[in-house]
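Propose amino acids for all 383 sites.
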């Protein structure tokens, strides 16, 4: 979840809101004001239903943030850097960019979230006895107790990437000593859970609860996807572990001199396949990037006269790596910035590129040679 608006920072952790979250807020306020509260507590004014629904929704999302914050605090206390907490249509997510070093790290980081939700449920339940039993305040507190209890229980379902799936992974990792095996099992469980939620959603949709059913279908589909993706990330991460950029970079005919005419550039690079994103050099140093888009802006008749340096995008803000950087880190950067390749530089000197196709062919070759069948990578995880 990269895109989102940062609304606050708590203990240095950015709290972000994804646009899809507004849909969740709208649905929850609307269902509370129009359906839930009127059914249980008839006789309030319309304004009261909406006001109580809005306050309840705010406290509910506050509870979700607290759940995520405790994940983040424990992760950080165990040395795992936390990038941000995002709220989106299906709830909250903590983006932890480090790697769990041990089953213990994984277990405590995961379990603390549901525990927080249970504590919140107990607190709201206790508070609900203070106001008169049928008052709007008591109604909100009772609802918050129930919803936090459900949130905690749902997150304990043992399918990756739910908290329960992470607890399962930690347990299998602890027992077998293999993170890869543990990830495979937790991911498979996550796919089953996601699929079951999709089926449940379809059943609900055809039993009269159309909106709720559709929402469940999307959530189940999202969970299945997230399980697959995090599984693939761990597997790929474990296979690239220990490799340096310098070992996998391409150095031959991967950059173009700024004085090259566009026509020569097109002829020279068309056959190599990469015209999409080419590093440009000025006296051997990286000074910009040329993209297909830059080339297209020049009328074809001018290709022989216009130089690459005249149309390239200057180097400012360009993501680069050094030959000593880890390949895993480079892969993360490629994914985060959605780039096809990264220029490799040492100091001021251009050394080569590291590209997605190159990483993919490395991984494919490993697989073809059967190097990964008995792979065991005990001390790694990409969460
Ligand atoms: Zn959680």
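Proposal:
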């Amino acid at each position: 979840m990269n895109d989102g608006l940062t609304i606050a920072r708590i203990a240095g952790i950015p709290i972000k809101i994804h646009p899809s979250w507004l849909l969740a807020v709208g649905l929850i306020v609307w269902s509370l004001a129009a359906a839930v509260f009127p059914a249980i507590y008839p006789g309030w004014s319309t304004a009261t239903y909406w006001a109580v629904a809005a306050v309840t929704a705010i406290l509910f999302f506050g509870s979700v943030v607290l759940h995520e914050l405790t994940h983040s605090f424990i992760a950080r206390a165990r040395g795992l850097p936390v990038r941000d907490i995002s709220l989106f249509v299906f709830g909250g997510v903590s983006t932890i960019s480090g790697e769990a070093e041990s089953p213990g790290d994984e277990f405590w980081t995961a379990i603390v979230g549901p525990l927080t939700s249970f504590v919140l449920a107990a607190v709201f339940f206790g508070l609900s006895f203070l106001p008169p039993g049928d008052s709007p305040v008591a109604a909100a507190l009772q609802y918050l107790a129930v919803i936090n209890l459900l949130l905690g229980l749902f997150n304990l379902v043992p399918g990756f990437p739910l908290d329960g799936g992470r607890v399962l992974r930690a347990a299998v990792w602890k027992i077998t000593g293999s993170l890869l095996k543990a990830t495979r099992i937790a991911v498979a469980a996550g796919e089953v859970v996601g699929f079951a939620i999709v089926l449940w959603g379809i059943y609900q949709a055809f039993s009269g609860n159309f909106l709720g059913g559709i929402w469940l279908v999307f959530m189940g589909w999202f969970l299945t996807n997230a399980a697959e993706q995090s599984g693939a990330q761990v597997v790929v991460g474990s296979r690239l572990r220990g490799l340096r950029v310098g070992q996998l970079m391409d150095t031959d005919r991967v950059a173009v001199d700024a004085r090259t005419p566009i026509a020569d550039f097109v002829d020279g690079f068309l056959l190599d396949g990469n015209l999409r994103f080419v590093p440009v050099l000025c006296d051997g140093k990286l000074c910009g990037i040329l993209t297909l888009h830059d080339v297209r802006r020049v009328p074809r008749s001018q290709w022989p006269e216009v130089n690459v340096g005249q149309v390239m995008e200057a180097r400012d803000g360009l993501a680069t790596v050094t030959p000593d950087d880890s390949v895993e880190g480079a892969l993360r950067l490629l994914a985060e910035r959605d780039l096809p390749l990264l220029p490799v530089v040492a100091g001021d000197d251009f050394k080569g590129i590291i590209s997605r196709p190159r990483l993919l062919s490395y991984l494919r070759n490993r697989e073809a040679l059967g190097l990964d069948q008995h792979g065991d990578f005990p001390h790694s995880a990409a969460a």
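The longest strand covers residues 82-88. Residues 67, 71, 113, 155, 163 surround zinc ion (CB under 6 Å).
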